[in-house]
Amino acid sequence: MSSMMFQGMFFFAVLIGVSIPLGWYIKETMQGKIPKYVRFLKPIENGVYRVLGPISETNMGAKLYLLSVAFLSIASFVFLTALLMVQHYLPGGQNIDNMSWDLAINTAVSFVTNTNWQAYSGEISLTNVSQMFGLTVQNFVSAGVGIAVLCALFRGITQKQVKLLGNFWKDLTRSLVYILFPISVIVAVILVSQGTVQTLSQGMAYTGFEGQDLWMYLGPVASQVAIKQLGTNGGGFFGTNSAYPFENPTLISNFVENISILLIPAALIFTFGYWVKDWKQGRTVLITSLFFVVLAFVGVVASEMHGPVFANVMDSMNLEGKEVRFGIGWSSMWAISTTAASNGSVNAMMDSFTPFGGAIPMFLMQLGEIIFGGAGSGLYGMIAFLLLTVFIAGLLVGRTPEYLGKKIDAFDIKMASIVVLTPLMLTLLGAMAITLHPEVMSWLTNSGAHGFSEVLYGATSLANNNGSAFGGLTSDTVFLNILGSILMGLSRYLPIMAILFLAENIGSKKTSALSEGTLSTTNITFITMLIIVIVVIGALSFLPAMALGPIADFFSIK
Prior knowledge:
Blueprint: H1 2-30, H2 42-52, H3 62-86, H4 101-112, H5 122-125, H6 128-158, H7 168-194, E1 203-207, E2 213-217, H8 221-230, H9 251-275, H10 279-305, H11 327-340, H12 355-366, H13 377-397, E3 402-403, E4 406-407, H14 410-436, H15 440-443, H16 448-463, H17 478-507, H18 524-556
Antiparallel strand pairs: 1-2, 3-4
Helix pairs in contact: 1-9, 1-11, 2-7, 3-4, 3-6, 3-17, 4-17, 6-7, 6-8, 6-17, 7-8, 7-9, 8-9, 9-10, 9-11, 10-11, 10-12, 10-18, 11-12, 12-16, 12-18, 13-14, 13-18, 14-16, 14-17, 16-18
């Protein structure tokens, strides 16, 4: 146990150490102050603007910014759906069937919304063309959209009496050219050095030990794995995701991939502090996020080390469903990282975790993916919680709530409430719809409380744009493909809409001077209150459902 705690301390120390300079770099590039050492990429940026034309120079309000996001997302959805439905006729597709219409729609929505829910087995269901030009491209674009929307919110918070939020196409281009692409190249090179596959070959035939003819699937794996982690996407090239040695061959590759999951979300917290010129604001978010993640890591490790179902077996350790090369420590760290961020990749089978070992990652998702969260989306979700906390604190002391000198009005709280409540309501409605379907039992591997945990986890993952799977739920059915598409789409775009209008409204306000009566949003009292607000909303909303699933599962074990 002590060695695993040391692993955790080392992991978070490296994460924060790398995030500090990266946060500054992101702030500089997204504000157009391109550092000298990456200016060789400037021609690519300018080339994109020439292709886009005058729209790349337009300073946008919330409506035009939102329309730009919608246009890109719809175009991406149409292209990816069409690609998946005709992939058999494209180069390298001779041995791969076209996707059915419902699975193609589900997969396209999944990758466009940065969810990367996979109702299919990657290497068996997709060609290299689909992987490279479909999924990998959307891994970049969907993460870039999240970063762009976050930067629009930053502008709204910091500017005075200005409703314009910048240019979406510039924000997207800079996030791709200067942030996601170069870091992905670095991570991909490291992964290749560790043995992660990177080839244009579809695979190779070989003879098994018993003389049977078998096929080994290959492809451009490292390049997709790099951006799937960095962009908090999580969709694996192979069906077994990062538990598969061709995706994640060594402890070093595992560490690099795990760090990559939280790297950009953590760096954006520092970017926030630098952008508003008040590091203490970023510190509030960082302390809150670390509080939840560290506590979750300790909880999962303790549960997997001393789970009741494995008492007196293998020294009480639960190694079922885990790669021996990673063990409980790195499997637990990955589980909480991938569910704190809206990543969804796995290096162990979540269905094999103990009841509380699976409940903790599920609860992290149910908080709305705000604990570090997705690329951009996690932090703007956390800022929505910050505004709610400021509002509640203002009510308690009888003062008009303010945040960073801006008065928080009813419209701001309505928009923040949409951000906070949308994933919550969609999770419960999704779980209800699946549970009430007459064929639900035929979709489950388990029955009883554990079976309900599979349903609840799946609905939580879809409605919070995570994409990880608990296992045991047959997800490739027409009903689940369509329901999942609706959940993923609403959970992605309703909060984006609310954040953009929130940014515009805050940006139009004057800045008030600080006074002795101004509520501090950086001291320990406020941080404690923020944590309480987050826990209360999550606990009160999901406690009944969790009681029917993992909690009942825990007490039913003999």
